[in-house]
Amino acid sequence: SVSGPIADEVGFRLNAYKVKRDGDITNLTTGDDENGETAKGMRARVDFKPTARLRGKIIADYGTRRVEGPVLTLLSAPAGARLFGQPLAPALAGITPGPENRNIRMDTAGFTDSKNTSFAGTLSYQLDSHTLTSVTTWQDWKYNYVADIDNTEIPLLAIFSRGAFPGGIPMGGPYRSEMLTQELRIASNGDGALNYLAGLYYSDSDSDRSFTRGRAGFPLAANWAATTGNRTVAAFTQGEYKLTDATRVSAGFRYNRERIHVDFTDLLPAVPARFIGASTDDVVTGKVALQHDLDKAVMVYASFATGYKGAGYDVSSGFDQSRINRPVAPETSKAYEFGLKSRFLQNRVQLNATAFLTDYKDFQAQSSVVDPTTQLLQNAVNNVGKLRTKGVELEVTAKPTNALLLETSLAYVDAKIASYKNAGCYLGQTLALGCVPLGNGFVQDLSGKRLSNAPEVKATLGATYNFPIGDGFSGIANLNYQYQSEVNFDLKANPLQVQKGYGVVNGSIALSSPSHAFKVTLFVNNLFDKSYATFVGDTADLYGGTHHVLSQMLPRNSQRYVGLRVKYEF
């Protein structure tokens, strides 16, 4: 990074980075290492203050990233499994499915490419008793990916085309999103009993996506293109009033008007089928809070807030007029929070505690519904019912000496589905396990079940020690532990898609120059080499529904690795 003045009242800062990481999954078919990453980018910032009352900043970001994959490895593969009728066994040569399996056999491992460009500008003008602020942002994000439909080396396309086309069946396509936002606000200045702000907001976003499944020249299984957009205008206000020197009450409200539209073209038919739709929604959300200082070092608070997640269209393969007619309705929430923030022992100990409860209505998730026109059962993103999350969070920071910092946190979250009567059944679920007929298919009632990918307990524990080395140089040693309890990755509660609880230890030691301009850090992540997955999937539908072949996503941190980071500022 480089920083310094350009002229009087004008300064700049320039940061650049480059990342190259080798893959940690071996493709036995090609000999390549998958899940490797290359990335580079830069950020430029200019701060200026042309007058005593006017100041501003401009930030520009640019970055690119490519991942070779990401790929899934096999967690389990029952004997006799057949992929679309083809034996899986030959594709398992050299592979031992299991939690620590980092070998694959794939004919098309695929890739993901992304490029991001953004600009943000802020202007603030100081009036006698107020501050006017304008914030403008623009972002352009491009993304492209190719993946293999079956995650194996079995040449499905060659089999289906009787040798006319080699290899497997790829899927993917490009995506581009562009967004412009503008915010204007006015805020009061001073330390009076009443402080407030009010503002206006506008955003305009558009995205384009194309998707194919198969290869050109052979009948495609999917081929479509879609354009979606979102226009939002909002007005908001927030204020805080001091009832006494120790008690404050605050309230805020936001009016939001949102319009979404979609233009979807299915290119598979001889005459492409086009579906166009739009939807508009208005909503008012708000928050009220009360804070009270028990003394100078202890504050308690309570708040109530309403939330909103806008309507949308489930743009994916199978999109048709029924999804135009029934866009996904907005998701709303009511949140209650009570908390404590405190400092003790001459500010050497900080304790924060929070208790919360949030109720969601029209929770957005994927479910099975009966189309009222065709009476056929469809899987799509829909409003599936109600959800409640409640829990407590605790954070403690202690500094027993000037050189030693201790940190710990604990979160207990009970996330339960309150109402979800027409959820799809997981593969292999029987009538005895709650899978009942509906229309031309089967559904289950997930009311009372735990939300997917929501650990009940998360905890961290860390220590940082600063020590002198000599000649002005200093060292920093850090050791931390992170734990999370068991999760199920499937909203349908498939008991096979579970990651048991696990904990990971990371450590580092750093050397810093006297001016702190130069810093080198030696680190080790996952010190005890604890393997874990961030996703487990059941692909029994590709294996005739009779063999539960499980795949898993193993992140880079799921095995021990050592690295060196160098930072230099001038």
UniProtKB/TrEMBL annotation:
Q: Which InterPro entries match?
A: Beta-barrel_TonB (IPR000531), Beta-barrel_TonB_sf (IPR036942), TonB-dep_rcpt-like (IPR039426)
Spell out where the chain crosses the membrane: none
Spell out the SUPFAM superfamilies in the cross-references: Porins
The terms describing its cellular component in GO are: cell outer membrane
- Where does the source fall among the domains of life? Bacteria
Localization of this protein:
Cell outer membrane
Q: Which PANTHER family match?
A: FERRICHROME IRON RECEPTOR-RELATED (PTHR32552), TONB-DEPENDENT OUTER MEMBRANE RECEPTOR (PTHR32552:SF81)
The record's similarity note reads: Belongs to the TonB-dependent receptor family.
- Protein's name according to its UniProt entry: TonB-dependent receptor
The species is: Massilia cavernae
Question: Lineage of this protein's species?
Answer: Bacteria, Pseudomonadati, Pseudomonadota, Betaproteobacteria, Burkholderiales
